[in-house]
């Protein structure tokens, strides 16, 4: 993926600075209205432009699909390209068939012509199965779980799957917890740069939701595709222990939503504070 070309092409997507102007195409605001979800119209415009700039011999990978808002936008005018989406149907009470049916209905409406493969399960397990995606990943959008370890692993675990030059878009990146994960990861992994930071002015900013950061990975010559021992140990912890904790916790959240909202206010407020919330 020629990432420099993608950044140049954004000039055709927004009438001015993407940070402060609405996308020229009204479709992104319409999808944001029609499909329940957590991404803003400017993010949707960037995702679609990224998929459009991606060559056909590379794949687009999304983690955290929910009801399909971000994916429905990314596939627009991108028929013939390959899209993979990983979702474990865990958060927000997204249990079982009902959640899947809602997602599939949205994809049926907006992504009928696209090659979309929905991979159900924990992304930190799925991404290590090298048989699932048969092309290098040129564009990767991460919008899954938002903890320090999961955001660190979101980069570590995908690196072996990436094309030699790849665009990595991370949602909710205005949150301090995400930026800390990026600092920790980039300090230990060569080849990564942060190219754009479209930050939210405040929580749930109407254009950028909670912020989108664009990273670029250029594989340094001679780099292997195995995780370091430390990263693999973190992944095993996340996939084997934290995943079970999350499953129990989300079941409890679904039973006692009020209690959860009060707890989240206390435990998450600092790691997710944006702008005047800080
Ligand atoms: C914020 S939502 C995604 C929003 C969506 N991209 C949109 O545009 O509306 C996050 C999703 O990530 C999923 N998720 C969280 N952790 C995951 C994991 N380890 N593997 C796969 N999916 C995960 C959740 O079930 C949830 O549906």
Automatic annotation (TrEMBL):
SUPFAM superfamilies: S-adenosyl-L-methionine-dependent methyltransferases (SSF53335). The keyword Repeat does not apply. Pfam families: Methyltransf_24. It comes from the Bacteria. One of its GO terms (molecular function) is methyltransferase activity. InterPro entries: SAM-dependent_MTases_sf. GO terms for biological process: methylation. Coiled coil: none annotated. Keywords: Methyltransferase, Transferase. This is Methyltransferase family protein. It comes from Yimella lutea. The lineage of its organism: Bacteria, Bacillati, Actinomycetota, Actinomycetes, Micrococcales.
């Amino acid at each position: 993926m020629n990432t420099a070309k993608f950044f140049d092409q954004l000039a055709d997507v927004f009438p001015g600075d993407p940070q402060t102007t609405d996308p020229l195409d009204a479709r992104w605001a319409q999808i944001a209205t029609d499909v329940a979800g957590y991404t803003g119209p400017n993010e949707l415009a960037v995702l679609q432009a990224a998929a459009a700039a991606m060559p056909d011999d590379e794949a687009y990978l999304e983690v955290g699909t929910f009801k399909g808002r971000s994916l429905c936008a990314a596939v627009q005018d991108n028929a013939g390209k390959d899209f993979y989406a990983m979702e474990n149907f865990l958060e927000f009470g997204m249990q079982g068939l009902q959640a899947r049916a809602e997602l599939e209905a949205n994809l049926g409406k907006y992504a009928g012509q696209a090659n979309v493969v929905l991979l159900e399960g924990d992304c930190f397990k799925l991404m290590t199965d090298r048989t699932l995606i048969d092309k290098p990943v040129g564009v990767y959008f991460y919008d899954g779980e938002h903890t320090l370890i999961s955001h660190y692993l979101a980069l570590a675990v995908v690196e072996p799957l990436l094309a030699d030059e790849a665009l990595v878009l991370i949602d909710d990146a205005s949150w301090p917890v995400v930026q800390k994960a990026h600092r920790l990861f980039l300090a230990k992994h060569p080849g990564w740069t942060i190219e754009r930071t479209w930050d939210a002015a405040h929580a749930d900013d109407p254009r950028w939701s909670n912020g989108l950061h664009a990273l670029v990975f250029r594989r340094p010559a001679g780099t292997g595709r195995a995780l370091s021992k430390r990263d693999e140990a973190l992944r095993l912890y996340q996939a084997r222990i934290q995943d079970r904790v999350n499953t129990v916790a989300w079941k409890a959240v679904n039973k006692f939503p009020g209690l959860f909202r009060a707890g989240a206010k206390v435990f998450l407020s600092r790691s997710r504070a944006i702008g005047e919330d800080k």
